Amino acid sequence: MKVFLTGATGMMGRSATRALQQAGHTVIGLARSEARARIVAEAGAEPFVGDYFDGDTLVAGMSGCDVVCNLATHIPAGAAAVPGAWRANSRIRSVGSKVVADAAIEAGVERFVQESLSLLYADQGDEVVTEEFPIDVTSAAEPVVVAETNADHFAREGRSSVVLRFGLITGHDENSRLKLKRAATGKPIGMGPRDGWCHVIHPDDLGDVVAAAIAAPGGIYNAGGAPIRREDLNDEFAFAAGRDKARYYGKLRLRLVGERRELLTRSRRVSSQKLTDLTGWKPVHEYFSADWLVGHG
Questions:
Q1: Averaged pLDDT score across all residues of the chain
Q2: Domains of the chain
Q3: Could you tell me which of 3, 44, 58, 100 has the fewest CB atoms within 10 Å of its CB?
């Protein structure tokens, strides 16, 4: 199939490009500049230069495509508590996702895949969380929910959409690198109750999830490795950084995180079994360990 990919130059997009090509699909990657287009071309995909928020341009790029995968994000690594740091990412999800979905409808695309996050689920303590569990919408979570709603609108037009609720990307990514650096210098990295559950995914598993979504029945799917206790996750970071135990943020520092504090500290013991059952996908990196962080140094 012919796949139009937004976010093609990001970590998720590059991983998806590799996996989709390995599965025999043709990939067209959206790039906002000629310099970005060269990155897309170097990955083996066909670049299409255009503006993510320009519907008419996107329709032209999507012409003849079977699937659109909307993987665009703008995560403010190392600046999560800075006022306004999330504004660009929120606009991508709340405004851009509608532009992309509407363009896909106009271009006659039959399938739409939307990136989302499993952190939307309400705190469930030790309960195993499946796709049927409720989400808890706050102002911090709202842009992600809007993106899911736009994918649902695409499906209501007689087409098929898949929403992928990814775990927290953890491994050879910028946020993990910064967290590891903090741990190495003895600074706090933990946030929230130590016995809470976290849902994580290795960067190398991202693309295979997207490739699986191409053939999955329409719907919502969790995607990640096995859930891990927050204390175990953070202590593995500390171990990889040469420390015995992870330190945790105090109440004052947590207040600086603002509205995202509650979202980031929920306990979510998320299961990705549905995606495995319906597509055969299984994470290569299933259980988190310090080995995921090798090479960060």
A1: 93
A2: 2-293 (3.40.50.720)
A3: 44
